[in-house]
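ping. complex inputs:
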Amino acid sequence: MRSFCRTLDRTTLRDIALVCCADALVAASFGAIAVSGGLPPWVPVVMSLVVFAGAAQFAAVAVVLSGGGVLAAVLAALVLNARLLPFGFAVADLFGGRGGRIRTRLVGAHLMTDEAVAFALRQREPGARRAAYWVSGVALFVSWNGAVLIGALVGGGIEDTGALGLDAAFPVVLLALVLPSLADRATRRAALVGAAVAVAATPFLPPGLPVLCALLGVLVAGRGPLIPPRPAREPLPGAP
Amino acid sequence: MPLYAILLLAAGTFAFRLAGPALGDRLRIGERTHWRLGVAAAVLLVALVATASLADGSATEGAAFAGWARPAGVLAGGALALRRTPFPLVVIAAAATTAVLRLCGVP
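pong. complex structure:
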């Protein structure tokens, strides 16, 4: 790990630290909101350790807290995490590739987040890519899970979440996460149609299902750009 | 949220993560599929924002309008996020807007 840190230049290490701080805040709010919404503290803590995907964690808890079924919550979160699939192909060679140790491959896969992939792909040298992936992956894992634990402990002390406006925090976190991807016009159109479908279906379907109906919106996105924009993405706040 | 649901979610997520490193050269994800998965994630997130802002639900009684204070707070936070305000401020502004509106008697 130390030699990995030496491979990376100062700016990269500083950027990784900044993203860790930002994500820790998101993680703490995740823990606090989940617990103050009525879930036992072990739920956000265990979920963060074994799922380790911010947007999906927020989505699953949001569905459950709004009275939705457990299956709908899991499905919604899995749809969000499907975007990890192409990432896996993009960074596969960074942790083993062919003939690599199995354990390295398993751990490397679990550390895969939007941020770690972005940090890795920003580097040009293969060695630096590998270093950026592992350093940011491990740092994010530690800061994310530590902050969720703190948030979950603090959240238990909050009594009236409504008076503090904390019910607005969940949707606004998700909104801040998704805003950058709405710069693409086709994505925006699909998202607006999907949201309209979900809201229209809300009075008639059990909680959780309307959000899945929103996926109909993908149909109006068209076939996509001829040369899709490469993920020249900045790490999003709070999307491990 | 029961433990089995969390483990199910974890297993599915890990499968998505491991597919690339495990399959390597034997499978390629096309650019179009890549793009569609990104669109699907955005669609789902925006739908979650909309429903979680507007509706309160319970498995037994169905959904009800959440009142004006919450969506107003979310909009305030969203406006700040568009101006690239730091994330913690966005969340605090949204919660504070909702809290102040409730204090003033807006449901």
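Residues 232-238 of chain A have pLDDT under 50 and may be disordered.
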